[in-house]
Amino acid sequence: MGQGQEVKIRPESQVQIQERGEIFFFYRPKVNKEEVHSADEVQRLYIVLRPESGERSVEEKQDQLSGKEGFMHKSSQTETTVTSGSYQGGHGTEEVNIEKQPLLRLILMGKKSLPDPAKKKGVPYWGFVELVTTQIEDIKTALKGEEYETSTRGHRHQPGGRALGEGIYRILRHYPNKKMHTHLIYKLEFPAENAKNEPQESLNIERQGSFLIQIKNPDDHGQQHGGGSTSTSSSGGASGFRGLPNKRKAMFPAHLQGQFGHNRYSPADPPDFLNYEGCEFLLIAASDDIGEELGLDLKPEGCDSSDKSCSDLVNTFGENAAYSTKPLFEGTWD
Q1: Residue 252, domain extent
Q2: pLDDT per position as a tens digit, 175-209
Q3: Tally of domains within the chain
Q4: What are phi and psi of 208, to 5 degrees?
């Protein structure tokens, strides 16, 4: 499938493409739930972004020895279990040529869905970057199931992830009324349009969507992610989570941190912000019609959505290696 193409359908469209790539969606069932029949039985919604080109072929990411990325590699050598909170946010820097080397971001949404793109003035949804890596195996490991013991409930089974959607995305600057903000937009290739799309609809994974994306300042120690309806108190708040512990927050290099100034949020410009584990952000539904809103159309690269071998998700991560693909190809719960 590849990164596809974007086509301006209005010459006056005020957009600048920052990054192009592939987007994959996964959900994880709740503990001890092998079968899922509704969104109530979903524990997590994941997004994987794989940038493939952009304004710069070389992007800056966290040092490979930091964050969960570094902890996973260390634990694989010492047989240490990677647990939530056992590692700090990503820091340090290294360069990756995204046109020559895989760069993968595993994103966890605070709520178990995307914002509804049909609601243009919806509530912001909080999310964060859980893993940044150049190793495909790391994503497979993060999505696989596991068995563990608890002192109160005994043996527990955490099911592996389920592939939910595959498509192309763009991160772009938009200049309405000469005031710039950044968007994350996508268009699905799998599942096919004639599939049932039951889990996709339940989790607001529409065929296409546009979201404003705002990066949260990790040095903002307030109890809210924003004013008014975006408040996130200790009870979780409207955007779905209270935020990461301080040690889990990203530690951006000075030139990225400096872009916040005294502000609580910054546009995702450059997208390199997302290359640091612990990067927190808000997604705000903008539109379910990219062409109408931005004067832009996304075109995947002529993949036959009835042909499983055409799926880059399967070709990249391997079918049934760490997840089920039934929702991806049939549009039904699994």
Answers
A1: 5-220+242-329
A2: 987 789 999 999 999 999 888 899 999 999 999 99
A3: 1
A4: -150, 155
